[in-house]
Amino acid sequence: MPARTSRVTGALGAVALLSTLAACGGSSSAATPLSHTGSSAAAHPEWSKYTFTIGDNGGDGGQALSKITGAFANAPYKVKFARFTFGPPLVQAAASGDIDLGSVGDVPPITGAAKEYGFKIVAVERSLRPTRPIENIIVPKGSPIRTLADLKGKKLAVPQGSSAHGLALNALSSVGLTPKDVHLVFLDPAAGATAFAGGKVDAWAIWNPQSALAVQQGARILVKGLPPIDQTSSYYVASDTSLKDPVKRAALTDVLKRLAAQFHWAVQHPAQYAQAISQEEGIPLSDAKTVLPTMESRVTPVGKADIAAEQQLGNAFLTAHQISRKVDVPAITDNLLPAGFDSSKPN
Q1: Distance between the two ends of the chain, CA-based, in angstroms?
Q2: What are the 10-residue block averages of pLDDT along the chain, 347 residues in total?
Q3: Beta strand ranges found along 66-148 (DSSP E)
Q4: If exposure means fewest CB atoms within 10 Å of the residue's CB, which of 129, 223, 323, 347 is most exposed?
Q5: Domains of the chain, CATH where assigned
Q6: Strand (E) positions, 72-179?
């Protein structure tokens, strides 16, 4: 792994919770191109008592975008951001109430539900470039591994319980291999970067920007994270505690709509979006522009096809003995956004 990619994964660090949160929201005086979005303080004075914590998985520049766009500048509540290394601890934080809302890949809701965490899937962050993978299985430059079948008996690094874990599982299954046929080395992104760079593993299942930047520096994509072996969507999860309070639920819906609006704005302003990714990930602007196409997305309600895809993934994890109990995806789904929601229109 090149040094600057290691800096990206290192910057993700360990879970960052309340002590390292950057607050923004009602008192912001920054430029506010999205200040018209969402409900006003005058319309909902009862929301002023809330401070919502948004879990950030990193990579999409969400926290930096909130400042650039002023998405929460006129919000009748405050928001904070908590940074996580990857999805599983974010889902756990949602269940414990340490965060109110956050975006994760397709697998963390499965592994979280298998552990009976108290959370719900409330929206989808859908890729606008569904033919571009958001994660891949990569091998080092010069690796003799040419096909998936060549992974038999090899060491494959993967963040356990992450979307990349699902990619690895389905990719192996597609050529008749099981987790027992390879050495799955469960490492968080930072440790995976170190192992990959040091030749301690033969392959790495990882998402962007790490994957894209590694390829830019010579790594080779062995398998792209595309259907039918992988999803190109992420999922917003929310705390059961927040969802069960009608007033708080309504305010949290407003939070989600503002996030949807800021990502819509970002797609329309790629130069500023690249700057946000560069700033938040600590990578050169040129690298941010390289990974930008894989980050473009829109936020939508959860659809039947999403539920079916998640259920199929959950069943695959159970069959492969990666979880110990069956997951009922409809039971952990609770849409916050109305049917037909359009993030391009002010709400």
Answers
A1: 43
A2: 33 33 39 59 86 84 88 93 89 94 94 94 92 93 96 96 94 95 94 94 92 90 94 92 93 95 92 90 85 86 96 94 95 94 71
A3: 78-83, 101-104, 119-127, 135-139
A4: 129
A5: 3-129+233-332 (3.40.190.10), 135-224 (3.40.190.10)
A6: 78-83, 101-104, 119-127, 135-139, 155-158
